[in-house]
Each structure stands twice: as structure tokens, then as C-alpha cells.
Amino acid sequence: MDLTLWQYQFRIIMLGDSTVGKSSMLKRYTEDEFLECINQTVGVDFYVYFLEVEPGVRVKLQFWDTAGQERFRSVTRSYYRNSVGALLVFDVGNRASFERVREWHAEVCEHVRPHVVLFVLVGHKTDREEAGERVVSREEAERLAAQLGAPYVEASAKTGHNIRVPFELLSSRVYQGLQAGEVQLREGWDGVKSSVPHSQKTTTTKLHNNDSNTPRKRCDC
User: Per the record, which residues fall in region Disordered (predicted)?
Assistant: First the structure.
């Protein structure tokens, strides 16, 4: 893929408590690497990845990896408004991180109006289940996802299991939202950018990870 060519740019923010593995997920997805020890994010880190959401439609994904510590919240909040998608991440072996998902979700909704943010909920570190360390069941996570109007995916950066799914599902949802008019290009908003003249934009949609039963969430909470 020619990395200088892309039709759309999506800005996606990673949200969740400290140590849930947001940086590890991004490292595994963008570089296919896993580090047992990774420095905690201070403020916001930045990643770029190129994805073809359907044949001939290239998207530049900009990921903002936010720090989960409270002392950095004033910094991370400034990035919410210019995001079109968010991965809400919790650790399946850490109930406190799961219980704070609603708080993260509500905070984003409060700061993005009148724009739309699409969500995917991710139960991370599923490798902990084999060690008997899992404390959040799939069933209760799925119930929360349904209440938030978001799909739910379980993954592990350590093993690589399912690690591409949440990123590509969210990218597909954003692209689908563009085609349906749910997500719109707006002057002065950097959540989505397009390099395609309006008359040449793709009007057909055949998405990876397309699921007609997947709930959609407009963040006009």
C-alpha cells in the first residue's frame, strides 16, 4: 500500500484506566510486537496506521493513546472533541477498570457535542483467564456494551488473540457512518478528514466485520 495515498483520515482515542493495556494493544496492532514491560503513557501518545476498509478505500488511522491517571485528565479531555471513534478498554482481571467504563463513556459524550463519536468496548488481557485471574465475565461485559450501544470484543495483546478486531471494527463503523450520513465532515473538526473531492466519494459500502445486528451509538448523550 502506498502510504502517501489515503481517501480518509480517522482520529481514534484510546480510553480506560491506567494499566488496562491500551498502549500494549496499539503496539501489537501497529507493529505486531508485545513488550512485557512498557512505560506508562504520560499525557497522550500518538500512533499512525494505514488500513484498507474496502477494496480501493484507504484510511489513515490516527490513534491517540491517553493516560489513564487522574492527574492527566485535563490533558486527555482536550483530545476528545476531535475524535470520531473511541475504544473503551478494561482489564477482564480488574473489576475497578470495568466499573469505570461508564464514567469514561459519559465524559467523552459530555465533551464532544455536537459531534458524533462511535464506540467499541474491549475486554482486554483475556490471557489472564487461563491463570484463573478473570473477574469480569463476558456476559456482564456484553450487557454493559448493549447499554452503551456499542459492540463488545475480547482480546489479548500478549497472545495476539483478536487484537485486530476492535480496531478494524471501529474503523468500519466510522466508514459506514460516513456513507449513511451519521458521521459528517465538518469545517474546523479533525475527527474525519477527506482527501477525496465530494463528487468522487465512494457511495457503496461493503465493509470488513460488517454485522447488521451491530448496535450503533450516536454520542448525543
Answer: 191-221
